[in-house]
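TL;DR need C-alpha cells for one chain.
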Amino acid sequence: MILRVLLTAPPFAEADPWGKIIKEQARVCPKQALYLLAAVLEKHGQQVTLIDPLDFESHFRSPDLIAQSVSGIDLLGISIDASTWPRARRLLINLEDLSRRPLTVLGGPHASVLDEYLARTTAVDYLIRGEGEKSFPLLLDFLQAGKDPALVPGITFRRGEELIQTPPGPLLTPEELAELPLPKFELMPKGYYDLLPIETSRGCFYACIFCSIGFQRNWRGIPPGQVADRIGRLVPYLDRTTKKCIFIVDDCFTADHPRLIQIADQLSGLDSRLVFMARITDLVVPGMLEAIARLPVEVMEMGVESGYEEGLQRVGKKLLLEQVKQAGQLLGKSGIRRQARFSFIMGLPWEKKREIFRTLEFAFKLTHRLQSRLIVNFLTVFPGSLIWRKRRDWGIQITEQDYDQERWWLDQDIFRKCHPLLNIPTDLEHILTYIKVLMNYFPDIRHDGFLKWL
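>> reply
TL;DR here they are.
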C-alpha cells in the first residue's frame, strides 16, 4: 500500500533585536529542503502533497482546518528549526484531539538536536536526525511492510516508556548529492518568494561557536559541471519568484577554490543573478576574487562576526582582522564591492558593552570605505551550536523548554538568559544610541536591517 504523505513546515518569522517582527523575511526564499524531500519521496514511489510555509496558518490555525487538511493523509511530515518549532508544537497538540490522526514525523535541525526532549514531551511518532533523503524513504518502507522501525538508522521514537535512538546512518556522498532530484518547485506558490534556492554543496569546513548546522567539518561538494546543469534546470522556475534571482544556500560555496573557479567559468554567461555566502579567507586567495567577479553577483554575504582580534579568535572563524582589511582592499578593486554584504554579531558570550562598541565601529568603518552593505544582529543561541553545548560555562541559562514558547526570541527573560554580561535594559539603550550615532556619522552606509530596528 502506498502511503499518502503530506509535507509542511511552519513559516519563519524573523525579529530584530528590539522586538519588531520583520514579516517580509518570511517571503525571501522557499524552504529548499521541503521541496527536495517531496521530490525524493515521489521518486521513491510515495504519494506526496505539500503545504508551503506561507500557507501553513491557513491550513492549520484551527481544529476544523486541521481536520480538513489531514483528512485522508497517512503520514504528516513537518520540517522544523528552533524558530518554527513553537507553531509545529501547537499543531501536534491540536492533532491529539482528532479521532483519527496521521502518523507524525519531525525533521530538520531542531528535531536532530533535541530529538530526545521532543520525543518525551510531545506525541510525535518519529523524529529524523540529520539528513532525511535516505532515512525518511526507508522509514516509510518499514512502516508499509510492518517491519521494526528500530532497524532504520538515524531516527528517534518512543515504544511505550522506552526511548529508542537508532545509530546514525552514513552521510550522503558527493555523488549521491549530485544524483538527488531537482526540488519540486512546480508546487511553490507563484509570485510569493523573492529568490529560488539551490544547494551545490552540503556541510562546512569550519566549526564556528555560534553555528548550529549539523555537518561541521564535513563538507561535500557537487562537481562543477553538474552544478551548472542543475542551475540551468532551475531557470524555468524563476518566473515563480519576484526578483528572479537564484540563492545558493551552501554554507561554504567558495571554500573549494578550484571548484569555485570552474563553476565561475561555466556560469559567467548566466542571465540570472546569484545570491550566496563567501568566506573572507577565500577572497584573499590569488585568483579567487577575480573568479567570483565573473559570476552574475546580486549579493555576496560574508560573516566577519567580530570587529576585534580576540573576538575573531574566540568565535572560531580562523580569520584575522588583517585578512578582513585585505579582502576589503581587493573588493574595492573588483567591481563587486557594492554587492558585498558584511555581517556581524553583537553580544557574544564573553562580550560586554565595550566589545560590542568595538565591533560596531569596525563594521561601520569597513562598509563605509567600501560602500557595501552591512547587517548586525544580536547573538541568538541555537541548539546544536558550541555555545549551546557549553552554555553553562558562560552562565547562559536558556533551556530546551524555552524554545517551546511562541516567539521565544522576543522574550526579554530569554534574552537576559542568553546575555548574562549585559545590563538590560540600560546597555541595550546605550548600544542603540551608539548605532544611531554611527548611522548619522556614516549616512551613506546601506545597513540591511538597521532602518527596520529604528
